[in-house]
Amino acid sequence: MNRNFLIVFILVFFSKYSFTQKTPVLVDAKATKETKALYKNLKELAKKHILFGHQHATEYGHGWYGDANRSDVKSVTGSHPAVIGVDFGGLSGRPDSLIQRTKKELEKTIAATYDRGGVTTISWHFNNPASGGGFYWVDTISKPAVKLIIPGGTHHDVYKKILITVADLANSTKGKDGKLVPMIFRPYHEFDGDWFWWGRAHCTIDEFKTLWRFTVSYLRDSLHVHNFIYAFSPDNRFFTEEQYLERYPGDEWVDMVGVDNYGDWGRDGKYNLDAGIKKLKIVSDYAEKTGKLAAFTETGLESIPNTTWWTETLLKSLKKEKIRLTYVLVWRNDTRSPTHYYAPFPGHVSEQDFIKFYNDPYTLFETDLKKIYK
Length: 374
Description:
With about 375 residues, the chain is α/β, with parallel strands linked by helices.
């Protein structure tokens, strides 16, 4: 081979593959050993696999609540989901006795997932700390709380006290090995919609970015939380990378980029899979070039009336492009509602198709994970 040609080839190769794809680095330089290991292993697994997740999978399910070591997914496949979603919504805006009870329940659920070798992701349906209305925006009640809870706002101290409760949970949740449990913390999700009080209609871009940066810095630097992986996840209202990053606080403040998308995957009987796949590709490509993790942070088809949705819709979509996603999470199975569920249970019309989804080598469930914290 001509020497000059070889030199040019090496330069092109390394410029393409070394300098555009950064080594994963957590935003917390003091992250625990287990958190760093989880981050690294999730990045590696995403090259050939995707972890399956389900919200509130082991807390309750279709027609049951609080049963030990149970999930609807396990009842169908023999394994819990690899990723289990919980929520911090109950840690504020309630009597202290209820907050403490919720905290203990969360500690138990999160620690049990870690001890089995699974992964926990945390959403935060955060009740408005400045008004009534809950986490949804209610025109007649809700106040635009983002500007009130950031530094200089009238409710900033209230917000700091809430974050102290979050930090207390993070710093007290340990596995049987005595180690703090790593958690994927996903606050202020779907911020590009208007339905939550932190949505784009209720705060400016700068206010949202300030909120995000303060939240991370206060938890990490003041409250010494070192077992969080910070995840950023808008809804599906973007079509370009520029639109996706409109409220992005910066690479130094985010570990994982994701997207919540129900609309393109069959909600109300409407499918736009090409658009949905394009959005996943935008997220995945951004993660690759910045050294972040990427995830399909929420999706699903309520009641799953499409009997082959798992393999013919979801799985084929995930495989269609060269997308590297850490996990895909479907929403919860309500314990009482006959229709509000997103994962199958024994006897459901999509049960057999879900078993095919489970058996596909591309998908990973909890029993497939090995030493993910090592």
